[in-house]
Amino acid sequence: MDRKKEIPLSVPNLDPEIADNLRKCVESGWVSTGGPFIAEFERSVADYASVPDAVACQSGTAGLHTALRVLGVGPLDEVIVPTLTFIAAVNPVRYQFAEPVFMDCDGSFCLDPEKLELFCKQACVLEERGRRKVLVNKASGRRVAAVIVVHVFGNLADMERIMEIARRYHLCVLEDATEALGSFYASGRYKGRHAGTIGDMGVFSFNANKIITTGGGGMILAGGKNKKSLGRLEESRYLTTTARDDALRFVHGDAGYNYRMLNIQAAIGVSQIRQIEHFVAVKKRNYDAYAERLCALGVKGVRLLPFRPGTRCNHWFYPFEIDEAVFGRSRDDLMEALIQAGIQCRPVWRLCHLQKPYSKARRFHITKAPHFEKNILNLPCSTNLTIQEIDVICAEIRKQQVTI
Ligand SMILES: *Cc1c(COP(=O)(O)O)cnc(C)c1O
Description:
Blueprint lengths: L16 H12 L7 H13 L6 E3 L2 H11 L7 E5 L8 H5 L3 E5 L9 H11 E6 L2 E6 L6 E7 L8 H10 L3 E5 L7 E2 L15 E5 L12 E4 L5 H14 L3 E3 L4 E2 L10 H11 L2 H21 L5 E3 L6 E2 L5 E5 L1 H4 L3 H10 L5 E2 L14 E3 L4 H7 E4 L7 H14 L4
Parallel strand pairs: 2-3, 2-6, 3-17, 6-7, 7-9
Antiparallel strand pairs: 1-10, 4-5, 8-14, 9-10, 11-12, 13-15, 15-18, 16-18
């Protein structure tokens, strides 16, 4: 049988310059956690996100873990986390021997500020502990130390409301901006502020399926330009490099991690970050092309969901909502048919509060996320996806629609 070429969901777009950079690493011997590309990559990403500094690490997960520790989350604490996310946003809570409290999303897939506020107000109480106020979960008696906000698919969460609530209830805010490099507010209170630079700390990921890649890697950010933020970044840099006080004599001041980014990863990154605005433009062009073609073909019951108004989003992943009653087939049926036709696609993640390690964890009024888990389909969105391929995909979707 004549098997057509598969259209992948999300693959890297690597420039030939990368090979030259990697050759430089090999020829100079700088292949590990030292070398000139690391600092250059940190500077490029910090400049791009308009922040004074950033700390490169091994992965987004390592970055989130480090940030939680720097923010002081520890044993007996609770951390509010979304259930609709990749599980790596939640696992670092357990690495710190803290416990997650799962929260619902709103229509943007991101953490629902209304439920966040309701939880703080109804389920918790603000207590004076020494000179500090801490939020305590009435049911467990534990401190609720922080909230992790994920900018799902590159769509910015409602940071204006989330930050206001977090400040009022004395919660630290960690932004999981692993999917959102390139997304920023275009208006409002946070105009010009990039994903990952609004909360107390933030993290990008450069895994191979993200908008830019270093093979694997991450970047730790710390909100503002004040001394506290810069101190948090210094501490992150220290902890990710085994908390080394004296490199010659192997003197370490803390139980740190081997989380530092490699020079060979950064060598890929310095080339990739130069392309970010081009990648964002292609993602937007392809997103619009899907919407136009589905409309032109008269497809009903497949809706490409919008990104938040007032933001410039990176359109990293494209969420299609399948309305089974209108389309005539379920999301799973359509997914199977597309995979059969060589079109890679996937549902959203299994909700985290339903996953084995978290099946007994606390949760708060989760009603919206299950609808998205059931009905969302992600279609190919690589930056090397062509308009011709989008035509093929949309025609296949049209073919699958049941018309009465
Ligand atoms: C990719 C991703 C991560 C983890 O990043 P890695 O670099 O793969 O460790 C965490 N959270 C979310 C939401 C992600 O999409």
